[in-house]
Amino acid sequence: MDKLTPRLLSLYTLSAFCSPVFAEDSDKPHLKQTQPATQTQSEIPEATWGLAGVMRSASVPYSGIDEFSDSDRVNTFIPMLYFENEYVYVKGLTLGGYLYNPAQSDWNVSALTRLRFVDIPADYQNKIGADAADFGLRSEYSYAKHWYGYSEIMSDKSGNWHVNLGTEGEYQFGGLQLQPHASLRYKSKDFNTLYYGLDLEKVDAGVDYFVGVRASYHLVSNLYLLGAANLQILDGSAKDASIITDSLQNDFYVGIGFFNDRDKPLKTALSNKPYIRVSHGWGTPSNLGDILGGDIEDDPYDSQITTLFYGHPLTDELFGLPLDIYLTPGFGWHWSNDNQASNQEYILAIKAYYTISWPFDWRLGVAEGMSYTTKINSLEKEEFKEKGYEPNNFLNYLDFSIDVNLGSMFNARSMDGVWLGYAIHHRSAIFEKSSQYGRIKGGSNYNTVYLQFDF
Questions:
Q1: How far is CA 170 from the centre of its chain?
Q2: At a CB cut-off of 8 Å and minimum separation 6, what does 1 contact?
Q3: How many other CB atoms are there within 10 angstroms of residue 220's CB atom?
Q4: Domains and CATH numbers, the chain
Q5: For residues 377 and 391, what is the distance between their CA atoms, to the nearest angstrom?
Q6: Please, which residues bridge with residue 91 across strands?
Q7: What is the per-residue pLDDT across 399-439, written as a single tens digit (0 to 9) for each?
């Protein structure tokens, strides 16, 4: 099966570095017009953003295979990021860059990549590598006050293509937002053979139908409750395949998310500034808990990584607290050693900083996101081999940091925007709970030192 490709992260990473100023497409609570801010230190306005975690449950249509017969549903935990401006967007596990998006037009066109779930039983997802990344082109047209239509032509990395046509609405009822949607999907013969015949039999082309609704409910401040329910009707060719026993598939998810506070206007300017972070790190076989406890084991292969991150301000408060929140795309270079060739890592995350001003300015930071490596690094190679897993290039990303403002420490105004810090660079698969990460347990850790420059 198709593994997630670098396009999932490199498309947005390149776009975000060049910008002035990433399942389902959206659980976007709202878009609002910005209002004047009373105090400003930056020219960057508050962004439309979000960070969410949902648990998805889907029916398994492949019970015609003997070893699948006892698996009716498959569950997966999905961390999701959200961000949108006039250049790029991040909606759950969809990333896109606008090719045509004039301010006053009802049309837009974008290039995008999206994770597509292939719902086989959890016990077989690591072996088969089920979830796939599609990439392609999307056009949207707003034809009514609350509705727009869209068309997409998409393909996986092997050229198995499909075309989507659909419509989606958006309605607000107090704190509840509903997004009904309906679509059809034309699938090529090769697509149907791979994903509904599992390459065990030939399946002709056909058209699937989808209907569903996504919902978000504003609980308080930046906290939202999320949910969705969807129904898929398989085409005749797919439902007649010998391994398919049900023409109807359903899935739903529930979770929570942090988004802009719907009851407050977006700020026109933020106190936190963009940054560039340059770091270098050394790998360790120790797990995250051991590292946080100070028990750090040396890596016999001396794995090393150099990274470059850009930080784009999203907001400077969360739940009324002074938290600086950033969207931070990054690029990493894994240096070659006796157990690995050099390879690249693409990262996209949302990071929060809390500043403490005694006895000088220092910060605690934490980031959540996603990471894709072009090759499996030696730390993951050894751990997954020992545990009997097939490794996965696409994993969840965490970053824990502590840094100090050099200008504040040395009372030097010229260094106010320079931070010296330590961070843990962490990739993992969330304890076998996520099919998109290969349904594995483990990952890799690097202890890094960095310089971060506000500008």
A1: 23
A2: 118, 128, 129, 130, 131, 132, 194
A3: 10
A4: 7-266 (2.40.230), 271-454 (2.40.160.20)
A5: 10
A6: 82, 94
A7: 999 999 999 999 999 999 999 999 999 999 998 899 999 99
